[in-house]
Design brief:
29% of the residues lie in helices and 28% in strands. The strands form seven sheets. It has a seven-stranded mixed beta sheet with strand order 3-9-10-16-13-12-11. A six-stranded mixed beta sheet has the order 20-19-21-22-23-24, sandwiched between helices. A hairpin with a 2-residue loop joins strand 17 and strand 18. The longest helix is centred in the N-terminal third of the chain and has 20 residues. The structure holds adenosine-5'-triphosphate. The site of adenosine-5'-triphosphate has 15 residues, from strand 10, strand 13, strand 16 and helix 9.
Length: 454
């Protein structure tokens, strides 16, 4: 295990997120709501970029995967069959002195960690939020807010199979909100009561499940690396036999080294045929697959990579956070990969003088056709660069008085502080190439190196 650690503590990150509009406490003017968060203008872009990157990698670029968007409220029998009504519970204890509640499986001793008081015997507490469908609030009308998106994919297995004519192996992917009435909360967006999941249910022939499980573990780990997360801060942790959920044959967590230590960012499970068998029994429908080769009906096994949007966002922010010195001044910066950075380009006229306005606005209008772009003309250029660095904007485009003559602008790279000067007509193509990973000093025709950097 490595000793490396993100350079940020949670308080600093929470404060940056609040200050710059990534994440606010939910209903803040009323004092907030425990473990619920609102994503602000920058946070919503970060989340959207994460979801888009996931969808591109798991659905768009593959021919063995299709998408789904199932409703959050499902037939109550779903949660009977899945085992959630019976078993989706945490053991809860209460302090007899200060009445604070704890998960007994997370406590080290048998006393209250806050006041040292005596604790009650553990009681099982179901994590599903209950509500009622229709106007009558009685037992018959109870429904649950889904605690995972997975069940939507199991119950639609036959619909998807019949409408897409997919053959095994194939998968269904879904992104959506899930809700858990978590007992222990805290650690910012790591553990929320309302959160977003990105889940895959991959259906395979029994006997090939081990091979597909290993495939997905590697695939998913590589995806985090492709978003720019440092490999040293990622870890694969197999579940021990005693820890495995009742439905799982094998399970790995992809852990990230968050400021509070290693913790799960994604879980990948080999669920065997548990889900289709249970839903077939409960619904009376034969949820099987006709194998043309063997002329037999089989129940596919399922490999489930289950990731969280919020925990991925937190890992990206922790991993990207850095403090250094730029042009003799301390700065805070987020080394976010261009694919996830909320703002890709900032257009900065060197001065507020009116002569620069028309060209600056023209460049800004053009760039925002392609990317989330911001425009900033307030205060000194150095402060404006630092404002962009702090939110992770990878490139700044500066328009100066010479630009009016030579129709060229400078591009400044966030991490290296290097600058190049390029003709406006090749600005879009140049920025695209740099976002795709080309070195800044590979120049377009007519371009030149402007500043060597750090
Ligand atoms: P934990 O042990 O931390 O409670 P879990 O094992 O219950 O997590 P899973 O049921 O495997 O989590 O859910 C899959 C993924 O959904 C997790 O890896 C995580 O990214 C996300 N997730 C689960 N619960 C939460 C939550 N309360 N807040 C934010 N994300 C969550």
């Amino acid at each position: 295990m490595t000793e490396s650690r993100p350079a940020v503590d949670m308080e600093k990150l929470v404060s940056l997120c609040r200050r710059r509009g990534f994440i606010f406490p939910s209903s803040e003017i009323y004092g907030g709501l425990s473990s619920c968060w609102d994503y602000g203008p920058l946070g919503v872009e970060l989340k959207r970029n994460i979801k888009q990157a996931w969808w591109r990698a798991t659905v768009q670029r593959r021919d063995d995967m299709v998408g789904l968007d199932a409703s959050i409220l499902m037939h109550p029998q779903v949660w009977q069959a899945s085992g959630h009504v019976e078993g989706f519970s945490d053991p809860l204890v209460e302090c007899k002195e200060c009445h604070k509640r704890w998960r007994s499986d997370e406590l080290e001793g048998d006393k209250c960690p806050d006041c040292g008081g005596e604790l009650t015997e553990p009681k099982l507490f179901n994590l599903m939020f209950k509500t009622f469908i229709g106007p009558v609030e009685d037992e018959a009308n109870i429904v649950y807010l889904r605690p995972e998106t997975a069940q939507g994919m199991f119950v639609n297995f036959e619909n998807v199979l019949n409408t897409t004519r997919k053959r095994l192996p194939f998968g269904i992917a879904q992104i959506g909100k899930s809700f858990r009435n978590e007992v222990t909360t805290g650690n910012f967006i790591f553990r929320c009561r309302e959160f977003e999941q990105m889940e895959i249910e991959f259906f395979v022939k029994p006997g090939t499940d081990k091979q597909w499980f290993d495939y997905w573990v590697e695939e998913r780990l590589n995806w985090y690396v492709s978003l720019g997360i440092n490999k040293e801060n990622l870890q694969l942790r197999p579940h021990t036999k005693g820890e495995l959920a009742h439905y799982a044959r094998e399970c790995y967590d992809i852990n990230y080294l968050y400021p509070m230590g290693w913790a799960e960012m994604e879980g990948i499970a080999n669920r065997g045929d548990f889900d289709l068998v249970e839903h077939a029994k409960s619904s009376g429908k034969g949820l099987s697959y006709y194998d043309e080769e063997t002329k037999e009906h089989i129940v596919p096994y399922i490999i489930e990579p289950s990731a969280g949007v919020d925990r991925t966002a937190l890992a990206l922010l922790c991993d990207a956070y850095d403090e250094d010195v730029a042009d003799g001044e301390p700065r805070v910066l987020l080394h976010l990969h261009p694919s996830v950075a909320p703002i890709k380009v900032a257009v900065l006229p060197l001065s507020r003088k009116e002569t620069l306005a028309p060209l600056s606005q023209e460049v800004y209008a053009e760039l925002r056709q392609h990317w989330m772009t911001s425009f900033d003309e307030a205060q000194s250029i150095g402060r404006r660069y630092r404002r962009q660095d702090e939110i992770g904007t990878p490139f700044c485009v500066t328009i100066d008085f010479e630009s009016l003559e030579d129709k060229q602008v400078t591009i400044r790279e966030r991490d290296s502080l290097r600058q190049i000067r390029v003709p406006i007509e090749s600005l879009k193509a140049t920025l695209q190439a740099k976002m795709d990973g080309e070195d800044l000093f590979v120049l377009p025709e007519g371009g030149k190196i402007w500043k060597e950097g750090k």
